[in-house]
Design brief:
Layout (H helix, E strand, L loop, with lengths): L2 H8 L9 H17 L7 H35 L28 H12 L3 H16 L3 H18 L14 H16 L5 H32 L1
Helix pairs in contact: 2-3, 3-4, 4-5, 5-6, 5-7, 5-8, 7-8
């Protein structure tokens, strides 16, 4: 296979989901290179299992995109809306196809958990909610609103299946507790991805300190005025 073709696959420039066996081979080769280079990485079995889930999700998404195009074409031909909701049906907010689902700097961690959550994994939905809420803590106003809304959406998907989801908060010490629990869980398991959760803990803690410092300053100001 030409190097340019491999480069296109690795950089996401392929127009369709690549062949499963080809991509699995690339994953296995990259894992071997990482091990020989002394880089922290999951076992080939874990990576293969993770890749299989991602590939299956991508194929499902590819099929759904094709079905949406077919429905749109049918609607254009008939002049109607084949996706018109059933009378009495209640709509609920969900991320649109144009929304950025996870921060780009999350890399593989974000994409993997997003795929799992989209496929109905409540645990992944809970982890996404916590990570996104922590991301919102350290973001600007516009970004914070976006990540916070997504965090709430995924937490709702986890409710009833993950006990911790019932106590979820977008900010504050409760969020710190949830993020720390996930970080410690992954650290005990020896997972390199625990570093992402520890970063989330620091983001949430920094937000708490900022709020508490502001409250203390306001209290001192009120005391001085009084």
């Amino acid at each position: 296979m030409p190097k340019s073709t491999v480069a296109d696959l690795l950089n996401g420039r392929s127009q369709k989901v690549p062949d499963f066996l080809l991509m699995r081979t690339i994953v296995e080769v990259c894992q071997v290179i990482a091990v020989k280079s002394g880089m922290p990485i999951e076992s080939v079995e874990e990576l293969t299992a993770e890749f299989t889930i991602l590939w299956q999700a991508a194929k499902a998404e590819e099929g759904e995109a094709a079905r949406r195009r077919n429905r749109s074409s049918a609607a254009a031909r008939t002049g109607g809306d084949v996706l018109e909701p059933v009378p009495g049906e209640q709509s609920s907010w969900r991320p649109s196809a144009m929304d950025q689902r996870v921060p780009l700097h999350w890399g593989r961690l974000g994409k993997f958990r997003l795929r799992l959550a989209e496929n109905g994994d409540a645990r992944a939905a809970h982890e996404l909610a916590v990570l996104l809420a922590c991301e919102a803590c350290g973001a600007g106003e516009k970004e914070a609103g976006h990540w916070g809304r997504l965090a709430t959406y995924w937490n709702n998907r986890a409710l009833g299946a993950v006990p911790e989801a019932a106590g979820f908060q977008l900010r504050g010490r409760r969020l710190v507790v949830l993020a720390r629990a996930l970080a410690e869980e992954y650290a005990r398991a020896g997972k390199p991805s625990s570093t992402y959760f520890w970063k989330a803990v620091r983001q949430a803690e920094a937000s708490v300190r900022k709020v508490e410092a502001r409250r203390e300053a306001e209290a001192r100001q009120e005391a001085e005025v009084g």
